[in-house]
Amino acid sequence: MKKNSILVFLFCIFFTQIINASENDIYKKIDLFGEVLEKINKEYVDEINQSESMDSAINGLLQSLDPYSAYMSPEIFNEMQTETSGKFGGLGIEVSMESGVVKVISPIDDTPASEAGIKAGDYIVKINDIQVQGKSLNEAVALMRGPVGSGIELTVRRRGEKKALIFNIVREIIQIKSVKSDLLKNNIGYIRLTSFNENSGKQIKKEIENFEKNKNINSYILDLRNNPGGLLSQAIKISDFFLDNGEIVSTKSRKPSENRRWFAKEGDLTNGKTLIVLINYGSASASEIVAGALKDHKRAILLGENSYGKGSVQSIIPLKNEGAIRLTVAKYYLPSGKSISEVGVSPDIEVNETTNNFRIKTETDNQLNYAIKLLNG
Hints:
- The structure is a single chain.
- The protein is α+β, with helices and mostly antiparallel strands.
- It has 3 domains: 3-64, no CATH class; 74-170, Roll (Pdz3 Domain); 179-376, 2-enoyl-CoA Hydratase, Chain A, domain 1 (Alpha-Beta Complex).
- The protein has helices at residues 3-20, 23-43, 50-63, 74-81, 112-116, 137-144, 200-213, 232-241, 286-296, 366-376; strands at residues 70-72, 93-98, 101-107, 123-127, 130-131, 151-157, 165-170, 179-184, 188-193, 219-223, 247-253, 260-263, 274-279, 301-304, 312-318, 324-333, 349-350.
- Residues 83-87 have low confidence and may be disordered.
């Protein structure tokens, strides 16, 4: 186990004890932590950087809470806020940290990662020649960034595969068009949503209105596969487009005064036409809110695979040192009262990907083909 891993592990233990301690014991635990840190500084076989050790301690505390809470140093926080277009490239994946390695929540359509064959649920264990174990999520993400046109090698462990998979990918500037549409045979309106950004609701409304001008349109497919989520406000808007009334989603936080509920307004833009929603393990967060709301109101048939299970709200909280923490502040609940966290949304009709050559909206897309046959039938 590497030095950094040992420190994070020890700090996780001590800070978890601090969280669980009573108010009377908390100062004793803090003193104990100080004593352990002093022993490490004096006795550990290698000299350590105390500033980095404290960063590891803070990050260890946050990551012991859940996979989505994390510490951002001033440098990382500044990078997140700074426009780097034209200087840095990415792979096009949404990731989290699980069991000490990077877990792919979802590859984004038409990006180097999706074209190379990275799949939702893959575990990235090695970035070039560097082991991911022991690194924070922010450190791993920083390793995956780099100049546009530069190459990177990812070593991946995948469920059902005995051997590790190697992917050689070239970084690109990631530009995401969140909404795509197509008129499928027998007048099926197909809408694919790849993320929930500020303009997603407007774009989907425009696509629905264009479809509705075609009086022969009789059904819709809303494709939320490999959609890692985004803005809650857009998830509420898009759900409302297909509903006439009823609750869409609620959030519950530690403070009862911050608990909220959102409801649909009258007016289904599709006039109640048959709707199939496609989901898979890469459908997370806002995608699960839309799919879950439409399922609970029996407005849509969900087809595909169980979704990811990210049912929590994160807030970026600036710190005095000009860094910040990403902290989970609330959880989402569906109209049925069920939580999405770690459970996800289950499809009404389970259709799994058939091969490793599976690509969305191609000849290998057996899930979309099944949905089309179902609507035509």
